[in-house]
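Final report, results section. Input specification for complex C-07:
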Amino acid sequence: MEDFRVCPATGLKVHKPAELLIKINAVTAIVFILIGGLMALLLALTKIPAIHLLPSDLFYRFLTLHGIAMLVAWIIFFEAAILYFTSAVLLNCRLAAVKVAWLAYGLMLGGALMAAVEILIGNADCMFTSYPPLQAHHLYYLGVILFAVGAILVCCVFFGTLAVAKHEKTYEGSLPLVTFGAAAAAIIAIVTLAHGAIIFVPTWLWALGVIQHIDAPAYRLIFWGFGHSSQQINVCAMVAVWYLIAAVTVGAKPVNQRVCRTAFVLYILFIDIASEHHILVDPGFSAAHKAWNTGYFMHLAVLASMIHALAVPSAIEIALRKKGHTQGYFEWLKKAPWGNPSFSAMVWSIAGFGFLGGITGVTFGTEQINIIAHNTWRITGHFHSTVVAGTTMSFMGLTYIVLPLIFRKEVAFPKLAKFQPHVFGVGIWTMAIFMMFSGSFGMPRRHWDITFSDAAFSIPFDQTAMMALHIFGVGAIIAVIGGGMFVLVSVATLLIGKDIK
Amino acid sequence: MAITSPERLWWKQPVCGQEKLWISIALVWCIFITAIMPYWHFFGKQNPSQEYYRVSPVKYGAIVDKFTAKHKVGEEAGIPVVDPPPGDIFIAGSQFVWHPILKLKSGRTYRLHLSSTDMVHGFSVYPMNMNFMAVPDMDYVLTIQPDKAGEFFIICNEFCGGGHHTMTGKIIVS
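Structure output:
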């Protein structure tokens, strides 16, 4: 029993090796958000026409690193922490195969560092998508593969822990909803990472010279089974985190768990197929194929999000009304714990994912509308709404819960922490909205020089869209400040935060 | 609570009226937006093309060169300008230029062949803002009918290497 401690706040039995793994994965995630955020600042300062900071080669290099550090490393390291937390901690259980979990961490860290170093030394200026025939150094692909293998092992440890908990009867009845949601995310993760293996292993062999040719259209199809589906893991994990934060901060209880769980099952069944919206204006696929995969199935996954969109806020409202905030329609909203950064980050996340990210995503996923949105900055604005305003915001909110609960430290600079979600939220919303605004004029994504000064034709780009770039820049800088506040509070809490006994 | 095991028999709890109403509205809306795509496909006038053929980048490059030599009427910024009759016309994305420059006539119908001789490129017509992918190994045939005279630029909007931001092209409609 010496492997366990009892949490004084919740009474939960916490497995110490699991706790250490949660800590190390979360800390690594925060290191990567720091790297990615620094890249974000440099990229934004280059995008603002009046500053245009970086030379073109560094811009593309840092853009590639920004994608890998944020979309892959920050998010998936944090998700590893979430999977260990929702299994071992919430189920009062020991973590299965602790050594495998450490091996997974080693593979993920090694892989991420290998990919990052290859990018930084200029061997992989290929963007997150790395579409062949554009070729990176073989070590870059190997780095991604090692990371993915590590992430698969994390999922295995998670499912192993669920089995141990069931066998050792550490909980009664069914899994908690949050663990159920995390399990859905882990299932989607395994499907996703399998796609990654199917396409990255041959691409790695191609870079080594073993395979002569990678079919470009086939790569695009299978890559997006990995590239977009990994964002579906995020959606699923984010929703599970909403339920978690709502439960911890206001004691919210979902009205009907049957409905919530069905919605998670809809994600598992249908969300991955929706990834085909990336190839709506590609040659090689029939309209029937595109309509079937992105229309019918995507919208069943959208239905799941719509169900959570009622279930989470309604649970919060009921919980707050039970606390006596019953006047009028909105007293509960006014009296909500806005000063609690976990709560406010969750509200920003729900609103950002739903109103900015979700609506635009569903719209751009229509074949005909995709013609005017594909590869423009609209897309970049869309996924900064889902992944940053949505997922990252919810993970920030969760961090403020994990710091006292798992790290057993009082959150440092509480005033700064209180404002952090609002600063970050305002910044990222402004940034994403004006990305989409410029994109609606046809402004291309992944583009260093919109003035086309070195091009054959200096295309006179629309002045309204150019002006929007400056507003985007202001938003981006505010977001970087908000992100910096998050890193500062987290790191300060670890280093100088008061211990909770 | 969501972080503890649910009450026994949670799966037997009836779904309340408000939830049923919301899910019904959402479901109807999802069916509606699902129907939009096929509806536009059959009754709309602007759909992505379904016509494509396999072609190697080398062969496609040769086809474009032959087409360019046959219809060349001049040069602009070092890029050949062609004035082809209505029918099959060709454009290629190559690091880092769209070639040739096409002179088209308003109101006529063309079969625009789009592909790449090297990397994946993004074919973005400015200022109309229409976007398609130019993928090596694939000849993508877009049936187009220009309806407005003027100069249209082509921007590459898929990263294709270090000079990606200089990759432009032009279509002139008279």
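The first strand of chain B starts at residue 51 and ends at 54. Chain B touches chain A through 78 residues (CB under 8 Å). This concludes the modelling results for the funded period.
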